[in-house]
Amino acid sequence: MKENLLEQLRFCTNLPSLPSIVLKIIDLAGNADTSLTQINHYISLDPALAAKIIKTANSPLYKSRYPVSNISQATGILGTYGVTTIALSFSLADSLVKQSGKKLGMAGSNIFWRRSITSALASRALGERLGMSRMLDDLFLAGLLQDIGILAFHALLPEDYPSVFSLADNHNALLAAERETFGVGHDELGAALLEYWKFPGYVPAACRYSHTAPGKPNAGINECVATSGYVTDYFLSQDRKEKIGEVTRIAEAYLGLDEHALIEVLEAMQNELQHVEDLFEITILNPAHLSSIVTEARELLIVHATIKVRELGDKIRHDGLTGAHNRAFFDETFQNEFQLSIQQGSPLSLAMIDIDNYKTFNDTYGHVAGDGVLVTIARAITEQIRQTDILCRYGGDEFALILPGTTLSAARHTLTRIMESIAAIAYKPNEVNTIRITTSIGLAVNMDKEKSFSTHREMLEAADRALYAAKHAGRNRIAEWNPSLTSLLKS
């Protein structure tokens, strides 16, 4: 069906038609030799269009220093190319709005053009934020026409398309339904229509890629137009809390814009929307509603940014394989917990946990199986400790467990549970073998029954020596630090 639909674009008499002034402007836009005189002449043939262009040149969108009263002055402000692009936007909108009312109904046409014009503004605002000052009018036109394929569908398939259009819950769902039902989406159909109308190449290209994710962030017309659709969906949605995360993700993935930059884009749209509404003679949002949308977006994006920072901090502080805290986190946290133990006179236990014969297991079954053991051990330990206890991957196959406020007897009880839990694991490195895992644990306790260490490094060394003693004594056991271990290990 796809090829049939694309072929029908050439012969369908039901397609929206372009007025002669639009056809001439398209021709002028594609001609490098177009002169200022030609532009002014053809625009002057349409007094309503000329009035809109003069109004545009005077609008805050273009920040003109002097009042503009005629087309020549407007061209001086907007530039020859800018005037042709703006004239094209107005002429098309004026003509197609009237025609779409017959195909979509007045309510459907209003929804369609509210989305189209908001997308055009969003595309322009994104480009302005990205420093694409020479392309703002191109971005507006491309954003305006990115969904023109929907009108083409209604014209080509007046019996079949309305049901697909009306049943789609959202814009992306509509595109998916089009592709499934007709073998082509409104992005590709719209691009083909714009090429048939001989639009400048960047316009059909932006339409074709309006729903395509770029390989990497890029500040181009296609990426701005594609992002503009998501920004528009946020603006016009009734459920904005659900969409703010998606808009943020798209803006970063497509254009490299963070939450703060996105807020600036939304604020620019808030400042410019009324001017665009006046130019196109359409109401998109009332001022109070618009203000509340931007305020809500600012609040939601601040929350979103805060969560993102926390997640990033959490990621930096955790071991990527096991999910336990990493060595850097241990070094900082153990020192702080030790100082609190000294200051408050509260007990602090530190256990160093080592997997028995891990190197042999890793060499025999491979690193993937070895990583699986580490993950399994970390999970087993986590299931046996309190939320206030702190498990860290100290390095390789060794874990450190900080137990704040824990006496020697309480630490013994916890570590015994951990050992038994690990020993009960029947780990399968492959489909054939099943192995048992054991651990050796060294324990040191501070501020319990007046026993204490002078520094956190001294306590860490004590726990490490106790671990060595447990391994020296045959593994699969808990060894507790006591002063005699020093002379034992030095002999």
TrEMBL record:
Which CDD domains would you find in this protein's record? GGDEF
What EC number(s) does this enzyme carry?
2.7.7.65
HDOD domain segment(s): 15-213
Q: Where is the GGDEF domain?
A: 346-483
Molecular function in Gene Ontology: diguanylate cyclase activity
Q: What's this protein's name?
A: diguanylate cyclase
Q: Which InterPro entries does its entry note?
A: Diguanylate_Cyclase (IPR050469), GGDEF_dom (IPR000160), HDOD (IPR013976), Nucleotide_cyclase (IPR029787), Rev_trsase/Diguanyl_cyclase (IPR043128)
Q: Which reaction does it catalyse?
A: 2 GTP = 3',3'-c-di-GMP + 2 diphosphate
Q: What organism does this protein naturally occur in?
A: Nitrosomonas europaea (strain ATCC 19718 / CIP 103999 / KCTC 2705 / NBRC 14298)
- Source taxon at top rank: Bacteria
PROSITE patterns (UniProt xref) = GGDEF (PS50887), HDOD (PS51833)
